[in-house]
Design brief:
Elements lengths: L1 H7 L9 H7 L23 H30 L3 H27 L19 H28 L3 H31 L3 H12 L3
Amino acid sequence: MENNRRMLKRPDTKVVGLENKMMDILQPSEGTTKEIPSKKGINPLIDDSCISYLNYRIQQEEYSSRIYLAMSMWLNNEGYMGAAALWRKYSDEELTHADIARKYMLSFGIQPVTPRLDQPKQTFAGLPEIIKLSFEHEIEVSKQIKEMANHALADGDHMLYELALAYLKEQVEEHDKTQTWMDKLEAFGTDKIALRLLDNDMAELG
């Protein structure tokens, strides 16, 4: 369970210590560069707190991609070929989400940080666990983005708030995906035949 908590980093109510987490992405891993990208100039429409939230969003979206990639590879190796293809698709989608924040920063002359990324969980108990972990992970991501939206609104940064709303709209789709799989587990069970049929359903979407 400790590895699961480390991967998901999910709090009970709100994202605790988000500012510390955002600062962590600027602390390089051993053997990596300590260089932090510089700004072209000072743009009054984007401040340091906004930059921190966006760099953190990039890191978390890329880390989500790695989580789903690890799940995809495990599923492939265990014979869940339909689910493996679908989770690989989920992994690729997370990278496009990171690009949303990158494009925003570059529009203001800010070079995004290329983040360091931890290794996610590598082994799983089965497809039901992967579905449950994915469901919980998307809840954590939504909490992070809601905190960014709250910060933007309190700071009067309406452009960042609009970006946060775009991310939250994207999250509604993410929750729909994982909720559907959770509902099917609840409705049809987790025996081998049910999982085989579920894997076939996933193959049609992968």
